[in-house]
Amino acid sequence: MRILITNDDGIAAPGLVALTEIAEAVAGPSGEVWTVAPAFEQSGVGHCINYVKPSMMTKLAERRFAIEGSPADCVLAGIGEIVDGPIDLVLSGVNRGNNAAENTVYSGTIGAAMEAALQGLPAIALSQFYGPLNVDLADPFEASRGHGAALVQELLDAAPWGGSDYKLFYNVNFPPVPSAKVKGFAAVAQGYRGDGRMGVHPQTSPSGRKYLWISGSAQGERTAPGTDVRANVDGWVSVTPMRCDLTDRAALEDLRAVMPDYQD
């Protein structure tokens, strides 16, 4: 198996080390793991691509490359230029912090998986929720390391992957607990915190110029039953199937009743 891995925290991020271990376990001794990751942190860039400027590529080691671009750029670079042969799976992460509920739509980790899915490849985004029970561990990615390979293999072996023009991809969040406290895997929907909106905090520099800091909100509030944050806070690894099709089908039917004249 040939696996392409990337992230949004950058090529030097500790979560990428954890993801490399997961990918190597899944690929097996005869497989290949190719790393193509951003040269610098790209958190919060979503599905951005550098459409109007080139991205410099640097080879750091055998099958290890840094791209001055977004996570989606890294996937495109891996598919179109770097990886020698067909890619069987794209893994993105392991993100430092959760990509559940509203965080999902901002995430560069998710953006990489989206691009892989748009390119027709199986893709899984993996993120590590941080909280009081794991943030001070010697390895905050302990839950990811302990359960990541088994989960990826289970998704490859048993999960649905097709059924639409927009290919399925999976959003995985590991709970904010030590590995031994993980209760199992939970298939859940994307949640909604309600207070998960981004905010703006202005500051004035000594020179008198105004700067804006973007900040998020509290991460530990439980979402509705059967959704990602609720499962994570309760100790479960959340697994959410997603597609790039953003159409609201129920609203579309209501809208067609308002606009009934179109015929195709």
Strand order of the largest sheet: 3-4-2-1-5-6-7-11-8
Number of domains: 1
CATH superfamily: Survival protein SurE-like phosphatase/nucleotidase
Mean pLDDT: 95
Count the beta strands: 11
Based on the coordinates given, report the CATH architecture. 3-Layer(aba) Sandwich
Low-confidence regions:
none
Amino- and carboxy-terminal Cα gap: 43 Å
Overall body shape: globular
Estimate what percentage of residues fall within beta strands.
15-25%
Counting helices, strands and paired strands, the structural category is alpha/beta
Radius of gyration computed on alpha carbons: 19 Å
Order of helices and strands: EHEEEHEHHEHEEEEHEH
Question: How many helical stretches?
Answer: 7
Please report the first level of CATH classification, the CATH class: Alpha Beta
Give me the CATH fold name. Answer: Stationary-phase Survival Protein Sure Homolog, Chain: A
Helix content: 25-40%
Biggest sheet overview: 9 strands, mixed
Catalytic activity: a ribonucleoside 5'-phosphate + H2O = a ribonucleoside + phosphate
Family: Belongs to the SurE nucleotidase family.
Protein name: 5'-nucleotidase SurE
Function: Nucleotidase that shows phosphatase activity on nucleoside 5'-monophosphates.
